[in-house]
Amino acid sequence: MAAKKPVTLKKIGEQLNISAMAVSKALRGDPSISKETIQKVKQLAEELNYRPNSIAKSLRTNETKTLGLVIADSTLSLFAPVIEGIEDVASENGYNIILCNAHSNKEKEKEAIRTLIDKRIDGFMLAASTLTAKKYKAFLDSFGVPYVFLVRRCEYESGSYVVNDNIYGATQMINYLVKTGSKRIHYINLSKDIVTAGEREEGYCRALHENGIAPDPEILYNVAPTFDGGYAQMTQLLHEKEKIETVFCGCDMIAVGAMESILEHGLKIPEDIRLASYDDIEFAKYLRIPLTTVRQPKYRIGEQGARMLIEMIGEKQSNCSHIMLKPELILREST
């Protein structure tokens, strides 16, 4: 069966005995066209399922009303509320979203950005990007469209980002743990090459100092932000037979792995080991031991990031803006 040809302005005009130009003006509500004609054109266009030629329109306006979004890892539930916030704002403002998965790989993230640029997007967002270092700025700037970092900030002042305050969040958690009895807190942090790791470590150390406890670098570890990373590090610690009273993890996926290892070794949470974390991913409250964690304002990060990018596209603000949102302490059974 042959594909049905798309409905054109010319076809609508032929059925109403008016020009394609008049149809175009009527669809835009041009005052030079009578209200009666506008009504007839819009009614027929709806009946025929007419869709504007977005490519032709983008060539005229130099805008596609499309935003790009590159996610570090689309399998992580952390990003679902971020995407929801972006989509809500984009829809309100007449934008579509093209989503790419970078698989937490720098080269794949670069290729995803190039693909989005080929689609003539008006701007793009990078969620938990691997390209936050200053050495990648020239690459990102070379495409000539605005962009915004989400979840992880860029490591230079002249970039735009929307993130949560990692230092504040980690400080709040450590203060809570110390004030409720923990004195020696092992920290299984994110990989050192992730900018967030340094910020959360700073909050961890700051809170210990504020409580008169000297941070011990011997109980601070850096692992991949995955289940396997947390499981392997926790298993190693338990095999060393060192007394462990409290473990703080740099993200919930690390904590899920650590929890599995603790329980496999016949230990109880929180009776034997208290466990706390950061992010508050969707299933943190549904784990065998519901997880105490720091909740990132994920929806608001997406919402404000999309709004920032759209304003940059419309040149309603400068090309550099920073928003840092306060996270929230979520107390559950693991501590």
Q: What is the level-2 CATH architecture name of the largest domain? A: 3-Layer(aba) Sandwich
The count of strands amounts to: 12
Global morphology: elongated
As for the CATH topology of the largest domain, it is Rossmann fold
The largest pleated sheet is described as: 6 strands, parallel
Using only C-alpha atoms, the radius of gyration works out to 26 Å
Helix content: 40-55%
Listing every helix as H and every strand as E from the N terminus to the C terminus, the arrangement reads HHHHEHEHEHEEHEHEHEHEEHEE
Number of domains: 3
Number of helices: 12
CATH top level of the largest domain is Alpha Beta
Distance between the termini: 64 Å
Output the strand order for the largest sheet.
Answer: 2-1-3-4-5-11
- Beta-strand percentage? 15-25%
| Poorly predicted parts | none
Mean pLDDT: 91
GO molecular function, one term: transcription cis-regulatory region binding
Keywords: DNA-binding, Transcription, Transcription regulation
Domain HTH lacI-type: 7-61
Pfam families: LacI (PF00356), Peripla_BP_3 (PF13377)
What does it look like?
With 335 residues, this protein is an alpha/beta fold. It folds into three domains: 9-52, no CATH class; 64-164 and 298-326, 3-Layer(aba) Sandwich (Rossmann fold), CATH 3.40.50.2300; 166-295, Response regulator (Rossmann fold), CATH 3.40.50. The chain contains twelve helices and twelve strands. The chain has helices spanning 9-16, 20-27, 35-47, 54-61, 80-92, 106-118, 137-141, 166-179, 195-210, 227-239, 252-264, 298-313; strands spanning 66-71, 96-101, 123-127, 147-150, 161-164, 185-189, 220-222, 246-249, 274-279, 292-295, 322-325, 328-330. It has a six-stranded parallel sheet with strand order 2-1-3-4-5-11, with helices on both faces. Strands 7-6-8-9-10-12 form a six-stranded mixed sheet, sandwiched between helices. α11 links the parallel β8 and β9. α1 crosses α2 (20-27). The longest helix has 16 residues, at 195-210. The relative contact order is 0.12. Keywords: DNA-binding, Transcription, Transcription regulation. Residues 7-61 form the HTH lacI-type domain. GO terms for molecular function: DNA-binding transcription factor activity; transcription cis-regulatory region binding. This is Sugar-binding domain protein.
